[in-house]
C-alpha cells in the first residue's frame, strides 16, 4: 500500500502546514510545505525568487569521477551517518557527499495522450519493505508551478524529478555538504551546468530565437540549487549511462502510470510506506 501524507491546511496568511501537527516541515507526516511560505508583503507564493536583489543565482557544476570507469556503486556505499533517518549512499572517500538517482519517463511520448512521471531513489533497501530501495514516484502535473497548462514530455519529467528530489524534504540537518544528482538525461545535466547561462543571457531564447522550453521548471530548479548553496550544500550533476539508472527509471515509469494530476502538487507517493525517510 502506498503511503501519503495528510492533506495540508492553509493558514490565514496563505502558509500551508500539515493537518495533523500544524507544522510547515513535519518529520512525522514526512512533508515540507516551505515552498508555500508567503513573500514579505504577504501577497502570494514566491516560486521564483531569482529576481530578488539579495538572491544570488548559483550555476551548478558537473560531477566528474576520478576515473572514466568509475560508477556510482564503485564510489558510493551504504552508510548511516549521525542525523540521518535511514542509510544513504555516501561517498567512500568523503562522508560529506551523498548521491541521489533521478529519472523521468513519458508513456506515448510525442503521441496522443502522453502520460509523464518522475522518480528518484535516495536510500537503501529495508527488509521490512520487501527489500525495495527507498524512493519516490509521482505523476507529472498538467499545470506548472505558475499555474499554466504544460505538455507531458520526457524532458519535462526529467526536470521535475530533480526538483522533487531537492524539494520533498529539508535535508540540511543530515549534515552532508554535497549532493550528486545522478541522471541519464543529457538535457538535465548540460542544461543545468552549461546551457542555462546562455539562455538567461539571451532572455530565455535559444540561438535559433525560439523560446526555451520548460522555463518555469528551469527557473524553479535554479532557485532550489541556489537555496541549497545558502545552506552550505553544493548540488552536482552526474551524467550516467542509462543502464546504471535502472532504479530511478523504474520509479519514473511507475509515476507515469499513475492517474493524471491537474494542479501543481508536491505530494509524492512513497514506496517504502514509512514517513521517517
From TrEMBL:
<dbReference type="InterPro" id="IPR012337">
    <property type="entry name" value="RNaseH-like_sf"/>
</dbReference>
<dbReference type="GO" id="GO:0046872">
    <property type="term" value="F:metal ion binding"/>
</dbReference>
<protein>
    <recommendedName>
        <fullName>ribonuclease H</fullName>
        <ecNumber>3.1.26.4</ecNumber>
    </recommendedName>
</protein>
<dbReference type="GO" id="GO:0003676">
    <property type="term" value="F:nucleic acid binding"/>
</dbReference>
<keyword id="KW-0378">Hydrolase</keyword>
<dbReference type="Pfam" id="PF00075">
    <property type="entry name" value="RNase_H"/>
</dbReference>
<feature type="domain" description="RNase H type-1">
    <location>
        <begin position="94"/>
        <end position="257"/>
    </location>
</feature>
<keyword id="KW-0540">Nuclease</keyword>
<dbReference type="InterPro" id="IPR050092">
    <property type="entry name" value="RNase_H"/>
</dbReference>
<dbReference type="GO" id="GO:0043137">
    <property type="term" value="P:DNA replication, removal of RNA primer"/>
</dbReference>
<dbReference type="InterPro" id="IPR036397">
    <property type="entry name" value="RNaseH_sf"/>
</dbReference>
<dbReference type="InterPro" id="IPR002156">
    <property type="entry name" value="RNaseH_domain"/>
</dbReference>
<comment type="similarity">
    <text>Belongs to the RNase H family.</text>
</comment>
<keyword id="KW-0479">Metal-binding</keyword>
<keyword id="KW-0255">Endonuclease</keyword>
<dbReference type="GO" id="GO:0004523">
    <property type="term" value="F:RNA-DNA hybrid ribonuclease activity"/>
</dbReference>
